[in-house]
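During the no-cost extension, the postdoctoral fellow (Dr. R.K.) reprocessed legacy sequence entries with the updated structure-token encoder. One reprocessed record is reproduced below for audit purposes.
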Amino acid sequence: MLHKLSAHLRRCAIKKFVRVNERIRASQVRVIGPEGEQLGILALDKALGLANQYELDLVEVADQIAPPVCRILDFSKFKYEQEKRERQARKHQHQTKLKEIRVKPNIKEHDYQVKLRQLVSFLTKKDKVKLTLIFRGRQMEHIDLGKKVLERFLADSAAAGQVERNPMQEGRMISAIIGPK
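Re-encoded structure tokens follow.
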């Protein structure tokens, strides 16, 4: 069992180092049995003997306490369950992404509605949206029309999101960032 455990330790890259069996340094440890019952404070050699009796490992679970707390359990099963919990936690995390929607000042009504639905769907998925209005050629003379289109987008998407960065002009583009509520 011990050889199997040490091979497992070498194979696995353990993020948080856990002391097991002979690697435990304390002379006395508080022992918790395989069923979760308190077995009391024992000398390390007696605790190791007890773990061998159950054919399990002695694992240090709390090393900051005096005396450290050790459990008698199957270490490979313990590591598997710990990794499984970490995978579940990562699975349910959501990383906020910045999506971009580009429009032009002379956008037609149907295209406007399609872009608005896309913007709202991004916001409901908890992503931020960078709304960029692009001017081409002579459209630069009518910046006020473009600003009206952008203000309309911001007003129509107010139910799903809130403005994080107000519209700013950068050369031939005006952009605003909208975040989820």
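The chain is about 40% helix and 30% strand. The beta strands are 28-32, 38-43, 57-62, 69-73, 98-103, 128-134, 161-170, 173-180. The remaining legacy entries will be reprocessed before the final report is submitted.
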